[in-house]
Amino acid sequence: MKNWLTLCRLCYNAALADRKNHYLRNKASLTRTKQQTTLKLDKDKHPQLKEVHSQVLQEVLLR
Q1: CB 44, CB 22: distance < 8 Å
Q2: Which of 8, 30, 47, 53 is positioned for an S-S bond with 22, CB 3.0–4.6 A?
Q3: How far apart are CA 54 and CA 27, in angstroms?
Q4: Are 61 and 15 in contact (CB under 8 A)?
Q5: Are 59 and 15 in contact (CB under 8 A)?
Q6: 14-27, pLDDT tens digit by residue?
Q7: pLDDT computed for residue 62 by the predictor
Q8: How far lies 12's CA from each of 34, 43, 63, in Å?
Q9: 63, 12 in Cβ contact below 8 A?
Q10: Helices (H), 1-63
Q11: Considering only CA atoms, which of 38, 45, 43, 47 is closest in space to residue 17?
C-alpha cells in the first residue's frame, strides 16, 4: 500500500508539472483525456506503474 501511495504521489506531481509546462508553452490547458493517453505510454516506460490499478491512476489525474 505504501508503494502505491508513493507511485500515486509521483504520478500526481508529474501530471501537475505537465499541465503547468503545457500551459506556459501553449496558453491552453491540457485535457484529462490527453493526460490519460500519456499515462498509458508512461506505464510502458515505467513498469512499476503497472502495480497500481489503472482506475486509481486515472483518479489521481482528476485531482
Answers
A1: no
A2: 30
A3: 29
A4: yes
A5: no
A6: 999 999 999 999 99
A7: 87
A8: 15, 14, 8
A9: yes
A10: 2-26, 32-45, 54-62
A11: 38
